[in-house]
Amino acid sequence: MAKRDAQYKLSGCVELDEMFIGAITEGKKRGRGTDKTPVLVAVSSISGKKGSEYMGFAKMQAVKIIDGETVIKFAKDTIEHGSRVRSDGLSVYPALDNHGFVHEPDTIKKSKAHIVLPHVHIYISNLRSFVMGTYHGLDEMHLQQYLDEFCYRFNRRRHYDELFDRLLLACLEKEEISFSALT
Q: Does the 2-182 domain belong in CATH 3.40.50.2000?
């Protein structure tokens, strides 16, 4: 699934944000600065009729730390050069301007994150519902594979009748994985 999704990059206007996945640690704070695994999330926006926008494609990557270098690498790997990137006011995002992206930061107050970056927050909310409804939580060992599955299914949501055939083709093109690597 990841190999198939790696064949294209997001373009146009892209919302970029971070999220944290993992179990709640007793007595610890939420969000940035937790023991949870950080994940970078990018969702493209497509212009609709009468100035409306809707979600296009999405990409996610579990990372060790969210810093400027990691964000730039993720953006270069997943977003086309020259695209507009909308983000919150986190200090790691302004470096995007120096690497071929048009960065549009907007400092988010607690009550309006879903208004400034609506698509990425809907996507993150859908991911959380999917994880809790299907897997009841995720292990860090295979986290990226779960994220890849969700992206793959989301990016093909308008071609649901072709999903099985496309997945079968992707499986046939993938090399074998040993049991020890899987576990």
A: no
